[in-house]
Design brief:
This protein is an alpha+beta fold. The chain has three helices and 17 strands.
């Protein structure tokens, strides 16, 4: 999955330090990332690509091995004219894997910083703390920490069949599993039951936790669950959320290879008979 970058080591401790020439710059515009494409991979800009980088205000994000990653809030992308903005989803099928993980995780932090410029309590400008990853208001003393939204991925079994779905309103042919965010006051298991009922009108039982995954695109932590159909298998589709949903036998599941997502891994684990 996207976070499995061994033998590289991800360090998320907040230890801000001035950038060095070899450190990486993560530059985003909406859901695009500034990169340089190569024949078989891509490159992220480094500080040695940027003239007078010492004068640029920076925000330290994290490190992978000995390399630091930063966003530069006031960067003019034209200073990196050899690089172009590309769709962030390049992380799904590109290498090196550690840089794919970095650009996705960096997007999570970029999104948070972009939405935390002003205090949600009094409206004054927020400042960055120097000892922990936190924005604080010097006026009302409000503190803002990174937002992580819990969500579930649900693989619904019906004997030797698995329910696969497609999201509504998206230009993709990729199949997915039922998914949704946890509401206040819910357990993750309650979220599984509610999302399944809301999206496909089914009841489930034997809810079994599988594993989790950070997912920077939605600023979330995903928890994967397998469960069994409880009762009638007639699907009542929520057409606002899904364009289709149907049962697939193990050998009909249209994937053979794992990719970076928890969803795909859970599908293939079922296909291979492990769950």
């Amino acid at each position: 999955m996207i976070q499995d970058i061994e033998p590289h080591c991800y360090h998320n401790e907040y230890t801000p330090a001035p950038p060095r020439k070899k450190d990486f710059i993560l530059c985003y515009n909406e859901k695009t990332i500034l990169i340089k494409k190569t024949e078989s991979s891509f490159l992220l800009p480094r500080f040695y690509d940027l003239p007078n980088f010492e004068k640029e205000p920076y925000i330290y994000l994290f490190s992978i091995d000995e390399h630091h990653f930063y966003i530069l809030p006031k960067l003019n992308p034209s200073l990196l004219s050899d690089f172009t903005f590309e769709d962030l989803v390049i992380f799904r099928n590109q290498t090196p894997k550690d840089l794919c993980f970095a650009l996705l995780t960096g997007f999570h932090l970029f999104s948070w910083y972009e939405s935390r410029k002003f205090c949600g309590k009094c409206g004054k400008k927020l400042l960055s703390d120097t000892t922990e990853r936190m924005m604080y208001c010097p006026h009302c003393h409000n503190k803002e920490y990174p937002k992580i939204s819990p969500a579930v991925i649900v693989a619904i079994r019906n004997g030797d069949r698995l329910l696969l779905s497609k999201y509504a309103g998206r230009n993709t042919t990729r199949y997915a599993l039922i998914a949704g965010f946890t509401e206040i006051g819910e357990t993750l298991e309650d979220t599984v039951r509610r999302e399944v009922m809301e999206e496909v009108g089914l009841k489930v039982k034997n809810i079994q936790y599988y594993k989790s995954q950070p997912w920077g695109l939605s600023c979330s932590i995903l928890s994967g669950f397998y469960c069994d159909l409880d009762g009638d298998d007639t699907i009542t589709l929520d057409q606002k959320e899904l364009s289709s949903a149907q049962w697939f036998k193990r050998d009909e599941i249209p994937y053979d290879n794992y990719d970076v997502s928890l969803t795909r891994e859970m599908m293939i684990q079922f296909k291979k008979g492990f769950y």
